[in-house]
Batch of 3 targets.
Target 1
Amino acid sequence: MSLSPTRSLAFCLSASLLALPLQAGAADGEAIIQQGGANPAAMPCMSCHGADGKGMAAGGFPRLAGLPEAYIAKQLADFKAGRRENPLMQPIAQALGDAEVAAVAKAYAAKPKVNVKPGPVERPKEGSGAWLALRGAWDRHIPECTLCHGPSGVGVGDVFPPLAGQSAEYIEAQLRAWRGTPAQPAGKKTKAVAAVAPTRSNDPNGLMRHIAADLREAEIKAVAAYFAGLGESTEPFDESQHRLR
Amino acid sequence: MKMTLRCLSVVLLPLLTTSALAADAARNPRLDDQTQLPKAPARPVGQTYFQPPAEADIPHNAFGELVRRGQDLFMNTKALAPQYVGNEMNCVNCHIDRGRKPNSGPMWAAYPMYPAYRKKNNKVNTFVERMQGCFQFSMNGKPPAADSEVMAALTAYAYWMSTGVHLGKAQPGRGFDEPPPPKGGYDIARGKVVYDKQCALCHGDDGAGKKVGATSVFPPLWGKDSYNWGAGMHRINTAAGFIQHNMPLGRGRTLSDQEAWDVAAYINSHERPQDPRLVNGDIDETRKRYHADDGVNLYGVVVDGRKLGLGVQ
């Protein structure tokens, strides 16, 4: 086949134009995880979220493996729109195209979900992290975390992400992101500290923010440690069982 | 008329009790009376609601074991006593915070009020019968016998929770503290708007709730796995009270009276399991006997050209 230069240019152009939406539609989630997105600012996810997608506690990098597809896509959209602020993650989300978001969300959702071994639920002690997780603090309108985040914190549907499988560092950081910090007046030896506005405001219908705002500092630490300490079972999730409250 | 009814029941009663041994079709006739609770006294300004004892204070002995078993049953009714539960509900779904939360039918405000005398029909209802009522209607199930282990444990739990409450004195926070009916009435279509925006996220577009494995996490609001047409929650006024105090979960007291009534009407304009008191298979007769006089409800009422009360299985 011999084509004139102009015709072949036109051919190539139209072929690549045709291919564009195709290529975008077929963005490879696994490739984005390992090598990053088309825009170099979209760094490989695994460099922070871990080779297995289970996150890295020390950096405060959350687990993405097995999170619901729609939840991951929503978080990336929220980072882009500034409803969720974070200096590391925002530029990455902004550098991902719509098709890339869809593909990477799908790829992470397909990885193994967290599964906490359902043993007999221990009776929690009042004031402990387990107490908040399993009993709540209803006098402050705080339902038990597991009522929304599922038995053993394994998550419910697309809206309520798992807490089991996340590190204490990450859980604490999110609770603080929702509440910000109130201003502190200068003390005898300390300088005044300006208030920090909340950096996360993306919870549907404000279901989560008032909970974070009403938790005490010690409670944040305790409840984060509780969920981080639940561990993970290698047994497949047993659909037939009841998980007790 | 009254006389003949009374004579009839005198004749029928022994028959009923003997046949109840053979089949559970014949129910305790006193369970049929699901009259609404009397309005609770208002909480005096500056005073707190009754504080039930802490879980840590449950003693470590045989009594304490029974109380703990009662609490477990209260929270995990479907899982631990499936033979008595005909839907996907647990007591705690409506009696929030393990039956401790004021204005959510708390057990500490209930237990001290029984046996309850009802002037209207000159009958006395026991605490166990009241709980059996919730098994039959709210849980759409078969009530455990009065002397069963399940009833003993649930009673012990309520008794323990009522430690320190004045016997026979109605407590502020009892029942569900209903908001007054809105002036312009309620509107089901407006209720759907509230539902789609504020409730569907958890309870589902189809009202069926959500599960994790076999465990119901967000309980069903209508359909075959929800409370039946005889349950107190089927009254729009009662549901409005529950909803305004407790829903959306964790954000109680954010809906206006109007919104609470509208969304309660929307929920209760859907089909649910039949009223087990169904009279001669006739919805109209059942409405006349049990629903016409029972708060605001839509049983046997035609809504959008459809008569409600057919039931679902």
Target 2
Amino acid sequence: MTGIGRRAVLAGLAAATLPRPALAQGARGRVVVVGGGFGGATAARVLHRAGLAVTLVEPAETYLACPFSNEVIAGLRPLSAQAFGYEGVRASGVTLARTSAEAVDGATRQVRLADGTTLDYDRLILSPGIALRFDALSGYDAAAAGVMPHAWKAGAQTELLARQLAAMPEGGTVVLSVPGNPYRCPPGPYERASLIAWFLKTRKPRAKLIVLDAKDTFSKQKLFESAWKALYPGTLEYVPLASGGQVTAVDPGEMSVATDFETYKADVACIIPPQRAAPIAAQAGVADRSGWCPVDPVTFESRLMPRIHVVGDAAIAGAMPKSAFAANAQAKVCAEAVIDLLAERTPSAPKLINTCYSLVAPGYGISVAGVYHPDKGVLADIEGAGGTSPVDAPDSVRRQEAAYAEDWYRTITAAVFG
Amino acid sequence: MRTGLLLLLLATPAAAAPPGASSCSGCHGAPGGAVPSLSGHTAEDIASSLAAFRTGARPATVMNRIAKGFSEDESRAIAAWLAGGGQ
Ligand SMILES: Cc1cc2nc3c(=O)[nH]c(=O)nc-3n(C[C@H](O)[C@H](O)[C@H](O)COP(=O)(O)OP(=O)(O)OC[C@H]3O[C@@H](n4cnc5c(N)ncnc54)[C@H](O)[C@@H]3O)c2cc1C
């Protein structure tokens, strides 16, 4: 190859890959990531790939994924399809601390772990997910969840709800309580309502599902409501806030769910309570009074505590929903920003994408998508982009979106845990 | 020395992603699934697909909605990064 030829190749390569190798310009430092879910495991892998020393702190041996767990509840797949070990993350070279983070000291930049060790950090990334609030709904505490499952963290709760539905009497009543915003997975309760209705219609056709909602509008509403009308008339009854849908108290002994207007007797009650960021966020001083974590939309650095970044469900990410897709996308952007910051470069403004699929029946998928950018200090929707599947699409499109949903799950879990 | 630099560039796992690019691998993975893989496509292919999704010339379920969030230049940068092995 001649000198000119080499230069041409170099120029071509530089143009093709954008001339900014992630690490080449000397990012150095220790990064600790807390939480090995969709956000944290992703961030740790990106940082490690760039050559940084990173420790991922996660107590669980097996991660149980929430996406598609509504299918487990409806008896459409086993819980084992939700389980992912950390062998892949470890094999990728990430150092794992199999314990939980108990305390963060933002002044000394240290994380104290439950096993007694302490980790120093130059940058800390928190992706700890949510805590269910057991102080928000009268009668709904941790013990009540053993009778009226939330099933909003995948695992024993998911199986409990699936078992209760399978064992329910023929003409029984299921009550599903949906919280106000914000909460993990905005369309999730409506996907759950759909798949429970599908289960009832196919297995216990005389049974009913009552959905009590603390709000009047929700994600993919037109699509859900038109599907419910077509598929589940007489099975699924939706009660919005305006019709008295807000649940104010539950009584697990009586199996009753109360609004200001009515008390519903349930054979099975699924109560999705209000939520906040997992406790380590408040402990670290990065959660505000809302219980969630305000962040910079370029770097995901906390607005409250320097050098601590928050991604995923725990973060206040503007227009981005609390989804696994978003947690993964945010983690990649945040990790790149951390690499830049450690190399004393200024991170450039990102764009992020979200796509969330929901199943309203087996083989019937719908989606919502969005593209986001930092605007006036928050992550805002890019106007003209995103939106939901068309309301009047043919069955073939619904089938295709159901197939895409499955494939999304396969791809993202392989990327994060494989 | 130039060869050394070339090797360094080739060995670099991934250059920093242009805006939006790192989100793509949320759905697009290994070949063989329902969602098309992006590996093995040229930058021109990817950029022209994005342009066709943006105008609606190419029918889609979701890419039409996503492509509208990116300008022509941003789409080209994403296409170049993906074709260069970014993920
Ligand atoms: C029913 C349901 C359906 C859903 N469907 C979809 C879907 O179809 N598509 C989609 O994109 N999203 C979906 N989601 C949302 C998705 O599950 C969450 O948005 C996603 O899990 C958020 O990722 P995360 O990393 O923020 O938190 P998580 O995935 O919850 O991970 C947090 C991790 O942090 C760990 N952790 C917490 N505290 C500590 C500590 N102190 N020390 C160490 N580790 C700690 C936890 O053990 C956990 O492993 C769904 C959710 C539900 C409930």
Target 3
Amino acid sequence: MSEGALPKEDAVLRVDDLQKSFGGLAATDHATFAVERGTITGLIGPNGAGKSTLFNLISGFYEPDGGTVEVNGTDVTGMEPYEVAEQGLIRTFQTPRKLEGMTVREAMLVGPRKQPGESFLTLFTSPGTVAESESANLAEAERILEDFEIDHLATQPATDISGGQMKLVELARAMLAEPEVLLLDEPVAGVNPTLAKKLKEQIRRLNEQGTTFLLIEHDMEFVMDLADPIVVLDQGHVLTEGTPEGVRNDQRVIDAYLGGGA
Amino acid sequence: MSLLDDPKAAFADLSRPERWVLGVSVAFVLFLLVAMLTGALGPTYFLFLVGLAGMYALLSFGLNAQWGFTGLINFSVAAFFGIGAYGTALMTASGSPIAGGFSPLVGLAVALVVALALALLIGIPTLRLRADYLAIASLGLAEVVRLIVLNERWLTNGSAGLRGIPGFFDGWPVLSTFPEAMPGLRLVVIPGSPVILETAFWQAALNVLLVLAFAGAAYFVLRRAHRSPWGRVLRTIRSDEDLARALGKNTYSFKMQSFVLGSLIMALAGVFYAHLNLYVGPGDLDPITTFYAWVAVILGGSGSNRGALFGGIVIVTIREGTRFLNDVALPIDPAPLRLLLIGVVIVAVMRYRPQGVLPPQRELIWPSAVDGGGTPETPDSGVRERKGGDDDE
Ligand SMILES: Nc1ncnc2c1ncn2[C@@H]1O[C@H](COP(=O)(O)OP(=O)(O)OP(=O)(O)O)[C@@H](O)[C@H]1O
Ligand SMILES: [Mg+2]
């Protein structure tokens, strides 16, 4: 099934023979691949190929019909999303998620995991600890917003910013959760070229700092420039995996896109 | 509220609707004071009204912790209120068919434990599912609890209700004899209409003390919780539960905590009611209480603790205020008029201020982190304040 799969020594994410069908439709059809630590791995495929479904299966939002998912060597198949996140895997969504009634920096502060202030009792037994971690998280949130050059938005309502800025905030917030592997579903869809370039730079920078990425993207220029290797999905199964050049020149990939898109 | 520390700065900090509410509240209090001094409103009755307002505030605090914070739709406010009232009544009332005669503190503890059990009972199967399941299940629960109270005579005395509930402070040192020990006072502010303060007044004052303690504690807890990372997870769940899950939050657990917290606060309202009224009956579990609590929260502004307080007071004002209309010749009965009035108020609020009168306004970050945590210039600038920024300040 995974003819194109490259050998992976240190996989942060391993998907093995994953299956999911909706009624008669096999949205994920025996998909097998792995994401090597330290890479930016691309996941491409025509519309409806099952990319988002795969993300939902990996991150625990869908229960697979068969197959396994491993994060950092731990079998997370069938776990709740929060348990998968605890293993260091964080995902974003294809459509940006808005947090009503929050400012941007407030929305950012949802990101950090295991905050002492998330325990109700700690709020009353140890408010000092809560204050300390909240200050630290706020400083960190503002530092990341600065890195992303959107610190001027910090106190804006989170619902009042542009779609592209929202994508940046999502990425920034996901980083506050300190993921080992971050799954991005179409990070630049609907984002203007300037912001897309910024996002690309940020992803590359964060990758250099140690975060592994798996990203779905239809913008071929974007994904070919950023990701290596690239996994190609078609009708729920992995068609091939390879370098950007290899994938670009692969006849099966071209056929899949022509077949699916026509 | 910080009003007490630094009134001027606090006032300057208020947004327009806040000032408006403050103004109306002050005018309203003055009006009540005048009514009291002129003898139109008995001081004991006035304190009773304050007690009721505190009770409704507790109910709306509880619902706000569920719906306002987390978006949980609970249609069994009346059931939790009733559980609180019956819980303490069954333990303390002389007419209780099962226990009776215990200290009200035991009653309070039992009421809270039963409310906790009921919250878990309904939360465990529904909170993992989509939001509407809780709504439907709670609707059923309210009716089941009401029917049990009405029909299980061996347990609850059925439709006869429970009599002989002691005051909450009965048996306490000092406080139990406080109303009798206080001298009767006769204040003459306006010649010809003296204000007489007797035992009943002091008894009512004790009740007000109790409800202030309950509501004050609830407010303190909710206020702190709302501004905390804990509250932030709840607000994230309300907006987009999947996002919270993707960021590693155990949303089931958070929803459960929010549901239990709200239910316990509603039960507190019931406990207070039982020791205020000294009698509880199955009629106290009528769904109208649920309706009032929802109106109060929506009116005040979902998610806002102050709003819930405000909404609770408005409800009591409408509920009790319409009684005075009995004196005026009216073409319709005050009871339907009351509901009509509430309907009109809700429609007006939804039309002109859909977020409620006092929606949660300021950014909710743990206070010391924003004030002292190295973030200059921008503390305390509110989300909505900025949106409509030009007409504030
Ligand atoms: N919850 C669901 N119920 C039923 N069918 C679904 C569900 N989710 C996805 N599908 C179907 O599964 C197939 C794969 O969908 P998926 O969203 O994973 O594709 P995708 O590769 O992400 O596409 P796109 O590039 O358009 O985002 C589609 O045919 C879709 O209609
Ligand atoms: Mg998709």
